[in-house]
Amino acid sequence: MIRTPRKSKHVHVLGAGIAGLTAAHELAERGYCVTVYDRDHAPGGKAATQYPWLRLRGHTKLHRMPAEHGFRLFPSFYRNVIHTMSRIPFDRTRSANANPDRQERGYNTVAENLLAAPWAAMVRSNIPVRIIPRAYGDKLGGFLRALEDVSTSLHFSEASSADTQRFQLKCLQFATSCRERRDQVGPHAYGGLSWWEFLGGDHLTPRFQQEVETFIRTMVAMDARGGNARTIGNVGMQLIFDLFSDGSGVDRVLNGPSSEQWLEPWERHLRTMMPRVGFRYGAAVTSISYDRARRRVSCFEYEEDHHRYTVPVGERDCVIAALPVDAMRAVLSRPASDELVNEDPSLTWIRNIDVSRYTAWMSGIQYYLERDVPIVRGHVYYPETPWKLSSVSQAQFWGPRFMQAYGAGICRGILSVDICDWEHNEGRHRAVGLLARECNEPKVVAQEIWAQLREAHQFGERSALPERYLGYHLDDSILFASPIQSYPVPDAYNRSRYFIHPPGSHLERPQARTTIPNLFLAGDYVQTNTDLATMEGANESAREAVNGLIEHDHLDGDLCEIFAPSEPAEFDYVKELDRDLFRRGEPHLFEVMGITQTIDGAPPGRGGALALAAGAVRGAQLVGEGLPRALERFF
Ligand SMILES: Cc1cc2nc3c(=O)[nH]c(=O)nc-3n(C[C@H](O)[C@H](O)[C@H](O)COP(=O)(O)OP(=O)(O)OC[C@H]3O[C@@H](n4cnc5c(N)ncnc54)[C@H](O)[C@@H]3O)c2cc1C
């Protein structure tokens, strides 16, 4: 590629997570000189693999084992991050997964390390494992069947059919609502509502209320009452749309540890690009200073090995701050950042952010096992576990050669578990009466979680999970106070909290472009189409930041491509009608026609809510002539 000289001389990227690496990649491809700064010593941030040294049960030797911060899911609606992965070369000979006998050679891209995870399962004790199939064929019929399956997965003995019908109808309402209604805050808009309010959660039976609450928390560390309707609706719809894709690329996982199969090759690639991307690890950024006269960021400071360094930001240099929101808040809270914060309202928003409202604890734990317990080829959700657990068997995707490369063949299974609730429900086994964050030892957390999982997998007297594991590793970001240093022992501390989305938050969130010409923001908390703190959102935000920088350099022809999540074209017609209604200040047509209001009296049985909707079309008096015809066409 021939690169034109850039007006910006040097770009300083703060943070080597997915957002920072994406920004560096896009910039280097466009000929910018880039240096990335990170407080850690490896790339990837929350997506990076950790490598603890463990003594596996019954063995004396220490083994270096791979452990994910939390397992990595790549649903098929991810396009930005996959687009980046398909531009990172992967040298198969360097992989622990390479077959030494066959002398594997050659390059692929890291995107080819993704494997389809075609199934997902819902596991509850003494109930047969509920498998959610991932391919439903055609679009519209598929959507309705997928909705039916998701709602009956939630459906429990005590849930009425009116519950599942309400759930289906509200999902359909969301799917057929225009973007403006979803985004905005105000009368008949969803942006300011919780998912609970949108769903009419108070009309559900208590059992179903519990199901709706816990299911969402098990996936994204937010519950229906605390989570924004827009975020949960948009992402929930994408996940349901995924269910009726052709089944080949639905959910994907990497075929080995994220750092080996993706992040380290990415760093190597960036280091060898021309111009090369430089990395400064162990550098914890502490403040960013602003020169009011020049209206530019003038310098930033970082600490490394207890020394403080100042990096001047030259006249033509730019800064992309790709730090997580809590770290960015700390940086902006330093007096040296005062001038900067006063200059831009989004920076003030970050400095004043209520961390307990906008972030939650969510982290991973790995169990190393003597044998693999795959359960399904995909992810498993345990909605009834107090600490809201989900899991995936890594071994089935990583393959035997990886398992041989670590733990000398002793370990044949890795169950990777996400813990989505550290703050609400008490443990009931080893940590009885304690919230997860109240535990003062990782061992207690590990034993409690294993007992919760075994209980969920219990059928009669037997559990599908073995009684004992060979070893475990809890995310390094969870820090436990030493009982020797402090008494009484305080709660654990999480240095890597997960960004969540309360009602009304979308429009409040900062955008990638700030009012300061040489400062851009990237990270999973920045406003994007993706609208959920994910690797996809982080990647998209970095593309936005780079585009802002390119526009600042007046090189608009060279913008990064940004992929917005797509929805089936079948819904467009009704969404267009909904846009009309919304502009006229009306609610969604299901509400205009009284369908939502009558749902509690809907006839039981399959398709009841949908049949009711279609029936109501015929009697609709409240809407203009076009709408009933449209809805009939839709059904
Ligand atoms: C348990 C768990 C499971 C998850 N599972 C998935 C999943 O399956 N799929 C998915 O898409 N997403 C998942 N996510 C979310 C996803 O990992 C994050 O949204 C994404 O990785 C965030 O990337 P980022 O670059 O915005 O931030 P980060 O990953 O937080 O990167 C920020 C970087 O900044 C560095 N940093 C922090 N402070 C400073 C400082 N002062 N100075 C210098 N550097 C600093 C950090 O070391 C880090 O490298 C999960 C998250 C968690 C917590």
Largest sheet: 7 strands, mixed
Q: Quaternary status of these chains?
A: single chain
How many helical elements? 22
Helix % is 25-40%
Strand content: 15-25%
Low-confidence stretches: 617-630
Please tell me the total number of domains: 3
Characterization of the model:
The protein has 635 residues and is of the alpha+beta class. The protein has three domains: 11-39 and 282-355 and 501-552, 3-Layer(bba) Sandwich (FAD/NAD(P)-binding domain); 53-118 and 362-494; 136-244 and 567-634, no CATH class. 35% of the residues lie in helices and 19% in strands. The protein has 22 helices and 30 strands. The chain has a seven-stranded mixed sheet, with helices on both faces. The protein has a five-stranded parallel sheet with strand order 14-2-1-18-30. Strand 15 (284-291) and strand 16 (296-304) form a beta hairpin. The two termini are 50 Å apart. Residues 617-630 have low confidence and may be disordered. The structure holds flavin-adenine dinucleotide. Flavin-adenine dinucleotide binds at residues 14-20, 37-40, 45-47, 69-73, 284-285, 322-324, 327, 331, 362-364, 418, 498, 523-524, 533-536, 538.
